[in-house]
């Protein structure tokens, strides 16, 4: 049976797609329904129809799923940040486990996966240490901030995200009042006019330090000193900066940072190690789970003190410094120069001397060091962004023949692709463990261990 646009169908939601949408079947015709939850019986209106499947709009929940819960955030349905808030946290973990398993089996071609149980969060709300709020106007012209709706750049107004810290609201209230008082325009993506683009806020969970970075389509904010005074009232305020981004693009941050007040970084701690973090540097967003993630990576690396280790995509050297406590020497590679500045400083403030950091692309630095200097590795750790590793990098890793490769991934689809390549070239997948860093969303982190075949 084929359905057309505007047809109404009744479905039992039996599965969940990778973006968290419910999936059900009507007479063999598959329908993807946003906001429907596994276990629901729903009526959906077909909005778009292909030959064997279509996309439906949730019209009515005839029978709610036993896994359905009340989202903590009133905007959970519209906001693009969360996709799974209406699913019980326990079932979110089932979804994430199946997602990782599905990718490894379908894309990676793996069977009999050596999967360990997913490491979940104790409290799946208020865990994020970082948020980037776009600033714009609503239909009435009022200045608003919040998060983009799914797949669009419409701002859903919300200053108090349920995943973030209460400090976010305090910062946003002060910045928006300042803009209203002095008639400072938010940036308009369509015209390229207006000044304030985003407000970046970071919070050190361990230290209580707060960072605010205003991303401007310009170099200066009117009455900067007055805003600085207001922001300094917030407990823990440590760093107030301006980032200049005049490009007409979706990239949030520009390259230039100017300090308005305080330091250009905040400090936070994971385990026993302190880290300085600049606005431009990557830092894991969920500090409690990061500790568990790094512990798992360290366990997989199985270090005894005499190993040479490479930590590729090292950011501010977080994993490198963790590893350095148990290895002979660690080398980190990272593309963002400011992150490498942080990494060097982080080694220094923690008195860790058996590390060296390289600025550059992992897929350029590693082949260069291998071919020129004949560098060696007992263990290689990689933690790439969502697009995964470049094939040149994987080739070099295979040439280097480390005993173990520990792959930390925030996208199980590219993880599966890269593991398939490595396992076709002399490695075996020996352990896999998903770690949830992102409650309420469809995202999941995974750690995998590859061992060299003898
Ligand atoms: N391991 C770190 C950072 C992981 S995020 C941590 O746990 O905190 C991925 C990092 O890879 C980011 O810091 C990003 O800037 C960096 N990156 C992106 N592309 C890269 C490339 N081609 N080569 C090296 N680093 C890259």
Main traits of this protein?
single chain, 454 residues, alpha/beta, 7-stranded mixed beta sheet, 9 helices, 21 strands, globular, binds S-adenosyl-L-homocysteine
Quick gist of this model?
This protein is of the alpha/beta class. Helices cover 24% and strands 31% of the residues. Strands 8-7-6-9-10-11-12 form a seven-stranded mixed sheet, with helices on one face. Strands 17-16-15-18-19-21-20 form a seven-stranded mixed sheet, sandwiched between helices.
What's the structural blueprint in terms of helices and strands?
Elements: E1 8-16, E2 22-26, E3 29-33, E4 41-49, E5 53-63, H1 89-106, E6 130-137, E7 143-148, E8 155-157, H2 167-181, E9 196-203, E10 210-216, H3 224-232, E11 237-244, E12 256-262, E13 266-270, E14 273-277, H4 287-301, E15 308-312, H5 318-324, E16 329-334, H6 337-349, E17 355-359, H7 362-373, E18 379-382, H8 391-400, E19 404-409, H9 412-423, E20 427-435, E21 445-452
Parallel strand pairs: 3-5, 10-11, 15-16, 15-18, 16-17, 18-19
Antiparallel strand pairs: 1-2, 1-4, 2-3, 4-5, 6-7, 6-9, 7-8, 9-10, 11-12, 13-14, 19-21, 20-21
Bound molecules: S-adenosyl-L-homocysteine.
């Amino acid at each position: 049976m084929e359905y057309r646009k505007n047809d109404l169908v009744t479905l039992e939601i039996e599965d969940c797609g990778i973006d968290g949408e419910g999936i059900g079947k009507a007479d063999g015709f598959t329908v993807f329904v946003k906001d429907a939850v596994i276990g629901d019986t729903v009526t959906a209106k077909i909005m778009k129809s292909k030959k064997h499947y279509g996309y439906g709009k949730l019209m009515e929940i005839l029978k709610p799923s036993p896994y359905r819960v009340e989202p903590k955030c009133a905007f959970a349905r519209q906001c693009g940040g969360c996709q799974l808030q209406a699913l019980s946290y326990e079932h979110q973990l089932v979804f994430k486990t199946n997602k990782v398993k599905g990718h490894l089996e379908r894309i990676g071609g793996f069977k009999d996966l050596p999967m360990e149980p997913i490491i979940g969060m104790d409290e799946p709300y208020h865990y994020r240490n970082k948020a980037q709020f776009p600033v714009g106007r609503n239909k009435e012209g009022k200045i608003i901030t919040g998060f983009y709706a799914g797949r669009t750049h419409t701002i859903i107004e919300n200053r108090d995200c349920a995943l973030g810290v209460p400090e976010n609201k305090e910062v946003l209230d002060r910045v928006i009042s300042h803009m209203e008082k002095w008639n400072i325009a938010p940036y308009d993506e369509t015209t390229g006019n207006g000044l304030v683009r985003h407000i970046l806020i970071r919070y050190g969970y361990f230290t209580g330090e707060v960072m605010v970075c205003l991303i401007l389509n310009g170099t200066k904010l009117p009455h900067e000193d007055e805003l600085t005074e207001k922001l300094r009232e917030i407990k823990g305020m440590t760093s107030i900066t301006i980032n200049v981004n005049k490009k007409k693009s979706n990239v949030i941050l520009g390259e230039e940072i100017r300090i308005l007040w305080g330091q250009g970084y905040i400090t936070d701690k994971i385990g026993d190690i302190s880290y300085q973090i600049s606005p431009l540097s990557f830092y894991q967003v969920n500090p409690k789970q990061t500790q568990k993630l790094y512990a798992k990576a360290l366990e997989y690396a199985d270090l005894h003190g005499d190993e040479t280790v490479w930590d590729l995509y090292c950011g501010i050297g977080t994993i490198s410094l963790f590893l350095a406590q148990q290895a002979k020497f660690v080398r980190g590679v990272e593309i963002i120069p400011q992150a490498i500045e942080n990494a060097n400083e982080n080694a220094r403030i923690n008195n860790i001397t058996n590390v060296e950091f390289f600025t550059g692309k992992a897929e350029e630095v590693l082949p260069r060091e291998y071919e020129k200097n004949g560098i060696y590795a007992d263990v290689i750790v990689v933690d790439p962004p969502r697009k995964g590793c470049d094939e040149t990098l994987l080739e070099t890793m295979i040439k280097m023949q480390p005993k173990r490769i520990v792959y930390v991934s925030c996208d199980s689809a590219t993880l599966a692709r890269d593991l398939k390549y490595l396992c076709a070239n002399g490695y075996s997948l020996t352990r896999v463990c998903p770690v949830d860093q992102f409650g309420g969303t469809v995202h999941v982190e995974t750690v995998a261990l590859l061992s060299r075949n003898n």
